[in-house]
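Run folding on both entries below.
>entry_1
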Amino acid sequence: MAARRTVGPLLSDLPVLRPRALDYLVLIVTDVERSVRFWRDVVGAEHQHTSGDYAQFRIGEVRLGLFGATAMTETLGRPVQVPGPGRAGFEVGFTVDDVDAAYDDLVGAGAAPVTPPADRPWGQRTAYVADPDGYLIELVRPLATEQLNRS
């Protein structure tokens, strides 16, 4: 029997991050004040504080930070780019009771529409809007089992 070949160190040999929970996300933004207005006034996130080029919100058990791109460039010592419309870096997802109503509310309050509500083959109804820097915001709710069986 041939010896098992591995590529790189074994997982058991490495220190492994074993997160207990997601604590916070930080979005790199071009204009902190504009983004605060969007996340507070359009999304309805609980604004906790703003300090210079950083603002923080609480959404359920997770904190959402907004950090100015210039300040992040200084912090990292290298340039950073904000994703921008059509270049989303990732998405922030929210489970909602009514995807259609949430989508209409967000678009009506100033969020950029990306993808209108639709039933997805993986068993969810989703829609997408974008914040002022182009970050995607997904609205989602599970479809009822009987809807899935009809697909």
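>entry_2
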Amino acid sequence: MRFLFVHQNFPGQFLHLVRHLLAAQKHDVVFIYEPNQNVIPGVRKITYQVPPRHEAAIHPDARDLEQAVARAGAVAKTARQLKALGFEPEIIIGHHGWGELLNLCDVWPPPRCSDTMSSTTTKRPDC
């Protein structure tokens, strides 16, 4: 099975799940993340870059939202590049709290997206 994990801090809370999948030696595990030095042999890692923040121009109450939207855009751009290379995940797993999963249904339509907070398929009204 082809798994795509998304989390800004690879491997995040998915360490044990990723290790379990790799131990089965029958899954393709890809991870989209912000650059860090963490390594799990067997995981294909693809980084994304969040544009720099201009906090002075952002209302203090909207800073987290702005960062989440920036992450969503950066992850979707990276996902489109991955798709162009022929990767089609059968399941997408991530933590929706960082905003990264927000635009992935624009790249790969549901029901592939799953979040770890509610363990349900992510649904957007326009998907």
